[in-house]
Batch of 3 targets.
Target 1
Amino acid sequence: MSSAEQPHVVIVGGGFGGVAAARALGKAPVRITLLDRRNHCLFQPLLYQVATAILAPGEIAPSVRQLVHKQRNTTVGLLEVTGIDLAGRRVLVNYVGDEMQSLPYDYLVLATGVQKSYFGHDEFAEFAPGLKSLEDATAVRARVLRAFEIAEMEIDPSRHRDLLTFVLVGAGPTGVELAGALVEMTRMTLKAEFRRIDPASARIILVEGGPRILPAFAEELSRKAADRLRRSGVEIRTGKHVERVDADGVVVDGERIVSRTVIWTAGVTPSPAGKWLAAPTDYAGRVNVEPDLTVPGLPNVFVVGDTAHFEQDGKPLPGVAQVALQQGRHAGRVIESRVAGRPAPPPFRYFDKGNLAVIGRNFAILESGRLRLTGFPAWCVWAAIHLAFLPAPGNRLMVMRQWVWTYFTRQLGSRLILERKDGR
């Protein structure tokens, strides 16, 4: 079969799920087109380290082309998908100049991930950036570092407290890990570098609407993480809801907290894949999928990762990197078996390798089945696993080198303040 006659697999999304699907099909007799509006594969679990100047953006985001450059059957397209023509089996895309075009497909894999959600209060976005992309991370980094620079030159000491108050909205893994990294930055790295202010006096406030932080973990681990944060100086406010975010700070259950730096670490919403497919979704907008990860009634369309709602043992799978990786590989294997005329693999089943969260220097929590681990041993496991799952070998080397340098010198790796001319 010539390459032009081979089935065409279009994969939308160059994240964990999309790249995993493409790699699984690397030796299959198919043509692959991998589409994404960004040219890099972002390792989101370490995004908070870019936001706190520990790592540089390129250290956690290799290019998509780099990850599949050895696959002769794979073409990468820097395009934005705007919809799906199911009847014509075509993916609608925008080329340069906003001219609408389309690509035909025989098999379609949607791995389009999630985006920030402000729970109906999109007006908060102007004053409280989220943390879902490299652009978000560099913007947060600029806000954090600039707060110290402004405070250093502020002649009125009474304003220092407001300038150095950081409010994090949402106490899932991102919020907790960001809080821990900010503690290390303010109490250790920046402590000796300013003359008119004391960076260690910065307030870090973590706000969570639920009854406890890290709700996806066992209550015992959640409590230990909270104790660690409190001992390091983080103010934790659980059972509190943000009512307003503006240029002066936030209003939490009627209390005004004056802050120049508010960071949104709560809430995500899936991509519009469900609308493109006109398919049933769950309450959050994730597409309900079959045991083989196809969409009901659309046997040639697969949805994986954060965009998919898949229940196992009566519970929906979480939106974490490991789910996307395993689902992407499974979708690739299903397609390969169909093309080769072999029996389909067994229904998808997620192998849970455990949950991890790091809370600053030398402390993490780990939950895997009945195993629960805290402290330095969990921190070592966290570091090893994150290095292992970085998508490119070169990135593993760079990150490990920077971590070793930071650990022993307490110096950050990328403290550039990059802002557009309009100040954002």
Note: The mean pLDDT is 91.
Target 2
Amino acid sequence: MLKRQFLLFSIVGVIGFVVDATTLYVALGVLGANLYSGRVLSYLVAATVTWALNRRYTFSAQRSTQPVSEWGRFLAANAVGGVINYLTYAILVTLVPFAARHPVLGVAAGSLAGLTVNFTLSRTVVFRGRRPDSH
């Protein structure tokens, strides 16, 4: 069960990465955001998408009957992984000129840096409704 959840969480994370990177490039090119504010926006959009997908697929047996509070818990709990994610990104785009020219590399590094923390907190704090073992 744990391995399956981690695999699904990782697949959802890849989708989240695509959403994150796409939103960042739209924010930079269309909205005129800078590398930092664009990333805040892209992270929030990606976090919402990954919450919805994890709720539906990864932790469907454990989801709450109160989705709005669950979404809030997801954002709060994953803020720890989000800070790790964002700091990794910010350090790279600030200190590595190649990453500043290709911010998708910073997004990828940040996503990997926050993966384990986000999975653990999602499993133990966010999706704590019905447990599969309690059927």
Note: The chain has a mean pLDDT of 89.
Target 3
Amino acid sequence: MSLTVQQTTIVQSSFRSVLPMSSSAGELFYKRLFEIDPAIAPLFKRGMKEQSEQFMRVLALAVGGLSSISTLAPMVKQLGVRHAGYGVKPEHYDAFRRALLWMLAAILQDAYTEEVREAWSTAYSMIAGIMKEAAWGAP
């Protein structure tokens, strides 16, 4: 699955609206993630403030790199392998997707249109596929 140029632009421009609220966005993401799948919580050893900040930094790098997947892919592959080492399993990726899309909807509100949701969902599927293939050999 790959992103169109238009979807890349949509993800990147909508993320610029999230950035000023990145601290609360990261916290919302983890709160929702642990509501969706409480069994995931023990995988995160850092304090939630630090974890939220790290998540938003990585998300910013990933979103910024969407214009050049060949440049982004090595980082994403390493991220996938690292996450597997932390105990993340392929089935956890759905909970991450749901938490991410929920957080975006909560932050963007009326700007979270079907087109925005679809672009983010496609971007997530592409990145998650790269991560899972690097970690387990199959998307």
Note: The chain is about 75% helix and 0% strand.
